[in-house]
Design goal:
The chain is an alpha+beta fold. It folds into 3 domains: about 1-70 and about 215-390, 2-Layer Sandwich (BirA Bifunctional Protein, domain 2), CATH 3.30.930.10; about 85-195, 2-Layer Sandwich (Herpes Virus-1), CATH 3.30.40; about 395-510, Anticodon-binding domain (Rossmann fold, 3-Layer(aba) Sandwich). The chain is built from 18 helices and 23 strands. The strands form 7 sheets. The protein has a 7-stranded mixed β-sheet, with helices on both faces. Strand 7 and strand 8 (about 210-215) form a beta hairpin. The chain starts with a helix and ends with a helix. About 30% of the residues are buried. The model has no long low-confidence stretch (mean pLDDT about 95). Bound molecules: adenosine-5'-triphosphate (ATP). Adenosine-5'-triphosphate binds near residues 375, 378 and 379.
Length: about 525
């Protein structure tokens, strides 16, 4: 097993063992690509939501938040293009009976070519040492050039064939490249077919009157159809934004990467409405703002990169992803798209209503353009959780597992630990708990040795442990242990609130934006 797979396995098992994420309906052997958040997972997820919501709605005077319904009129999805075009190309392996996304098989093939490029670079780096010029090597080495040229040709042929709905050519490409089922090595493929990712359901009591509807595959449409409602009632002038956090559902063809690709997930989206012609400036602004939001968490700038889309969807005039270094490599975490007036104009056409804005400065009506930022909450959870989970060897040679979460996001801010279960220590600890509970989410634990209790808190990312001992009864002080440094200091009980607040408050994070 590769090191990457090991790390990922550890992430999945730690998430389960410590009450972050459980497979849905586990007692019935689970439901594929659907997960439940446990007691610690729900807290961490809520804190990520708060960080996003505050950064969007609270810090920006011209952004407001809404909460639209999951079920929408079916024509919404006709207008948005999802009924006709929200498809992925799928292919089955006849021997293993496994289903794959045809485009992903081809992309993975190209990623392998890129791995070969990286190996060539590493080899040359070792050979040439200090004199190595990476840029020159990449632009002149014949092998590197050949691998890169091959990738480019494959990806552009795939893009063209997908655009022209030429699924036969996608199959030919898979056969020409001799792509095999990664698990079994079989090259016995079916034809490629398009598969719509929307979940359908029925609205209404009786079979005759029931209407076919969909579970929303993205939250954005709830914002678009409410554009005029929000603009008129909030009285915001352009540019202004509408933000939303909510569930989305996609019947993903392949979902084997834990909470990276789920069938039920949550999105945090913001649509920013701007005058036509100004959208590319706002697009750059939002790229920068969103990257800063990620960087403020302190997980390391080297773990993020932009991937600018060369092939754009028909409605977009610029698009980029923020990619994060997950345990299985750099993958999309967030999308930033300049969507022109595509959605609002489509809803004008299908609904017969106006989606226009009266611009008092220009004294004219127009359909606004939209720049959107769209991030998966669960994917963000996975990014943070997998990055922060560490095994450390301590000075005395022992090991600990620590989840070094940004303190504002930690599920529990402090653990209150009476050293022993007698002599009035639990009573004093309870008093401290009751005093601090209005400000922080706390845990009270009196079982097991203090060392074991510390380790349990490290494993769920609790920034502080507060130990009440016999001296506390006399000097009204406690031992405060900090998670990352493991330093312990004696602190007066009356100072606890300020110390915990300073480290764990959202202000810390938000003021870096
Ligand atoms: P991908 O290419 O990975 O399928 P996408 O480009 O279809 O993603 P968007 O439609 O742009 O994704 O959705 C915005 C964000 O929602 C993504 O950046 C991702 O974080 C999240 N997201 C999309 N699909 C899923 C899913 N099945 N499970 C979890 N998060 C998802």
């Amino acid at each position: 097993m590769s090191k990457q797979e090991d790390i990922f396995k550890k992430v999945v098992s730690h998430a389960k063992e410590y009450g972050f994420i459980f497979p849905s309906s586990e007692v019935y052997d689970g439901l594929s690509a659907v997960y439940d958040y446990g007691q610690n997972g729900a807290e961490l997820k809520n804190n990520i939501k708060q960080y996003w919501w505050k950064a969007m709605v609270q810090l920006n005077e011209n952004i407001v938040g809404i909460d639209a319904a999951i079920l929408m009129h079916p024509t919404v999805w006709k207008a948005s293009g999802h009924v006709d075009a929200f498809n992925d190309p799928l292919i089955d392996n006849k021997d293993s009976k496994k289903r794959f996304r045809a485009d992903v098989l081809i992309e993975d093939y190209c990623a392998k070519l890129e791995d070969k490029v990286q190996k060539e670079i590493e080899k040359a780096e070792k050979r040439f040492g200090e004199t190595f010029d990476k840029n020159q090597f990449e632009t002149t080495n014949p092998r590197v050039l050949e691998y890169r040229e091959k990738q480019k040709n494959i990806l552009s042929r795939m893009a063209k064939s997908l655009e022209n709905e030429n699924l036969a050519d996608i199959k030919s490409l898979i056969e020409e490249l001799e792509i095999a089922d990664p698990d079994t090595g079989s090259k016995n493929w079916t034809d490629v077919r398009q598969f719509n990712l929307m979940f359908g359901t029925k609205l209404g009591a009786s079979a005759e009157n029931a209407t076919e509807i969909y579970l929303r595959p993205e939250t954005a449409q709830g914002i678009f159809v409410n554009f005029s409602n929000v603009q008129k009632t909030s009285r915001h002038k352009l540019p202004f934004g509408i933000a939303q956090i909510g569930k989305a559902f996609r019947n993903e063809i392949v979902a084997r990467q834990f909470i990276f690709r789920m069938r039920e997930f949550e999105q945090m989206e913001m649509q920013f409405f701007v005058p036509p012609g100004t959208e590319l400036g706002f697009y750059e602004m939002w790229k920068e703002k969103r990257m800063n939001w990620h960087l403020a968490l302190g997980l390391g700038a080297e773990n993020y990169k932009f991937h600018n889309h060369e092939k754009l969807a028909h409605y977009a005039n610029a698009a980029a992803d923020i990619e994060f270094k997950f345990p299985f490599g750099f993958k999309e975490l967030e999308g930033i798209h300049s969507r022109t007036d595509f959605d609002l104009s489509a809803h004008e056409k299908y609904s017969g209503r106006k989606f226009q804005y009266f611009d008092p400065e220009k004294n004219e009506n127009y359909v606004p353009y939209v720049v959107e930022t769209s991030i998966g909450l669960d994917r963000m959870f996975l990014a943070i959780f997998s990055h922060c989970l560490k095994d450390e060897i301590l000075e005395d040679g022992s090991e600990r597992t620590v989840l070094s979460l940004p303190p504002a996001l930690a599920p529990v801010k402090a653990a209150i630990l009476p050293l022993v279960k007698k002599d009035g220590l639990p009573e004093m600890a309870e008093k401290i708990f009751n005093d601090l509970k209005y400000d922080f989410n706390l845990i009270f634990e009196e079982k097991d040795s203090i060392g074991k209790r510390y380790r349990r808190q490290d494993a769920i990312g609790t920034p502080f442990c507060i130990t009440i001992d016999h001296d506390s009864l006399a000097d009204f002080s406690v031992t405060l242990r900090e998670r990352d440094s493991m330093k312990q200091e004696r602190v007066e009980i009356s100072k606890l609130r300020n110390i915990i607040d300073e480290k764990t408050n959202f202000r810390n994070l938000l003021s870096r934006l």
